[in-house]
Specification:
Number of domains: 4
CATH architecture of the largest domain: Distorted Sandwich
CATH superfamily of the largest domain: Hnrnp arginine n-methyltransferase1
Shape: elongated
Radius of gyration: 42 Å
CATH topology of the largest domain: Hnrnp arginine n-methyltransferase1
Number of strands: 17
Bound molecules: S-adenosyl-L-homocysteine
């Protein structure tokens, strides 16, 4: 095929006309048809792009161009070469004439032989750089008897053509991939703009801000889940016997609840609750956790030969696809400080609404949040009055930073100066998301005449629904300490109280719009309004 074999001297300047037959490349030299490396094939393919003589169409080869000219423009170039008896120069001039004058096909075919319009040497100057048509030998075109013989590929030429076409296909795919990447980039840019805008809109006072954990962005949740990736936090939870033994006792003492049931463990961590459930007779347990600890859970489950019963899935329970449509029981240890800190209950409710069978149950099912008055002047001195005189200097302004931060610590039972009061009961089988933010009036019955220096908060947990052996545990100051300790809301100025009186107030618990996993707790107490953050 001429267009592949010959690299002719296409670009020549006036007055510097080489003998075309002296060109080194020989059309007939089969030696040229060596296997071509892929990269070479690509460049060959690029070299062979030929612009049509009569329109702007780019064709993949000289042969294709000749065919195109014949089919689309009714011009047979071989016929023209013969008719006008063109030698190499005449052929080059004709090509350049057509390209420079953009003459149409009809005008080309009806010319008088005596005076051809491309006689001028000017037409030796190529109109297009590296024009493949100029690198084609007209004799070859004619000797090949036109399009259907001399220009058809043979043997190696055909293989080369195929490689060139494959290279063209790869180029096309690469272009498509590039277009897709550009599109992704564009979407990322829009996303970034959206993030900036939504962080603007979550500023205080803007009602369009973040509202629930379901709306938490992935990057914000990353720190939360990575904190659960470390073994330390799981060690602390597992060593909390009040917590872990309560879950164990609930499951081991109520095997009839679990017999042949499908159980979902939301936030399975090390898999401890899943294993309790499996040992209690569950047919299948599915444990879901987004944190890396689940990889340990996988080993733990295998080490205890429970892999037939327990399936572990890494991911947010909101995102994963469970292998079952419905589950009979959801177990989860979702409780945070002051019960609702962490907002993991949101995820349990999400799973409940999506997966719990009609007669199924969530465990634990009932939770109380309680308050009591604390009179501990020693601690108050250490925490608050301390700032009045620091090495002889007043740092009283620091109290404004210290007081609004709720403190998680163990409160001694003998510092309580009131009876406890339950301010909220949550039934995990019924509560809806919006009820996890609430306000409640409370009344604390004062038991000693003293100063109330703080309010303490804690919660109690019940495994109750349908249990023949009910189990509960408390995180209050009167019982064994748990890793949740208690939550202390210090008063900047203590309130004098008398035994027998009632200290009335109102508490409201809200998610922090800036960080839905943390809480804002506001007290209206006597004539004061105090807001605390828990983070
Ligand atoms: N069930 C374990 C771990 C409880 S800690 C035990 O009792 O010891 C809570 C676990 O829930 C963490 O490991 C945390 O990564 C996981 N978790 C919290 N929210 C989740 C969610 N939406 N989807 C999946 N896992 C979640």
């Amino acid at each position: 095929m001429a267009e592949y074999t010959e690299t002719r001297c296409g670009g020549v300047a006036e007055g510097d006309l080489p003998d075309l037959s002296d060109c080194d490349d020989d059309a007939d030299d089969d030696e040229q048809w060596q296997p071509v490396e892929e990269g070479e094939a690509d460049s060959l393919q690029l070299q062979q792009q030929v612009t049509c003589l009569f329109c702007d169409r780019a064709l993949s080869s000289v042969a294709a161009t000749l065919q195109h000219c014949s089919a689309e423009h009714q011009v047979d170039l071989v016929d023209a070469i013969r008719r006008y008896n063109l030698d190499d120069y005449g052929y080059i001039k004709m090509i350049n004439f057509i390209r420079s004058t953009r003459c149409d096909a009809a005008c080309l075919m009806g010319l008088p032989d005596a005076s051809l319009p491309w006689e001028s040497e000017d037409f030796l100057r190529p109109v297009l750089p590296d024009d493949p048509l100029l690198q084609t030998d007209p004799e070859e075109l004619c000797a090949g008897e036109g399009l259907n013989q001399g220009l058809l590929p043979t043997g190696n030429q055909y293989a080369l053509l195929q490689r060139a076409q494959a290279a063209e296909e790869r180029a096309r795919l690469s272009e498509e991939a590039l277009a897709r990447a550009m599109d992704d980039l564009h979407k990322l840019r829009l996303l970034a703009q959206g993030l900036v805008l939504s962080s603007e809109s979550s500023k205080p006072g803007n009602p369009g801000g973040l509202g629930s954990v379901a709306e938490l962005r992935e990057d914000e949740d990353e720190a939360y889940f990575s904190s659960y990736g470390h073994y330390g936090i799981h060690e602390e939870m597992l060593k909390d016997k009040v917590r872990t033994e309560s879950y164990r006792d609930f499951m081991y003492r109520n095997p009839e609840l679990f017999q042949d049931k499908v159980v979902l463990d939301v936030g399975c961590g090390t898999g401890i609750l899943s294993m309790f459930a499996a040992r209690s007779g569950a047919k299948k347990v599915i444990g879901v956790d987004q944190s890396e600890i689940i990889y340990q859970a996988m080993d733990i489950v295998r080490a205890n030969q429970l892999e037939d019963k327990i399936t572990l899935i890494k991911g947010r329970v909101e995102d994963v696809q469970l292998p079952v449509e419905k589950v009979d029981i959801i177990i989860s240890e979702w409780m945070g400080y002051f019960l609702l800190f962490e907002s993991m209950l949101d995820s349990v409710l999400h799973a409940r609404d999506l997966y719990l069978a009609d007669n199924g149950s969530v465990y634990p099912d009932l939770c109380n949040i309680s308050l009591a008055a604390v009179g501990d002047t020693v601690k108050h001195q250490e925490r608050i009055a301390f700032w009045d005189d620091v090495y002889g200097f007043s740092m009283a302004c620091m109290k404004k930073a210290v007081v609004p931060e709720a403190v998680v610590e163990v409160v001694a039972a003998d510092t309580l100066v009131s009876e406890p009061a339950v301010i909220q009961t949550i039934d995990c089988n019924r509560v809806c998301l919006s009820e996890l933010e609430f306000s409640s009036d409370f009344c604390l019955k004062i038991t000693s005449t003293t100063e109330c220096t703080a309010i303490v908060g804690y919660f109690d947990i019940f495994f109750d629904n349908g249990c023949s052996n009910k189990v509960m545990f408390s995180t209050g100051p009167h019982t064994s300490k748990t890793h949740w300790k208690q939550t202390l809301f210090l008063l900047e100025r203590p309130i004098p109280v008398r035994a027998g009186e009632e200290l009335r107030g109102k508490i409201s618990v809200r998610k922090n719009k800036k960080d839905p996993r943390s809480l804002l707790v506001t007290f209206d107490l006597r004539d004061r309004k105090l807001t605390y953050s828990l983070q």
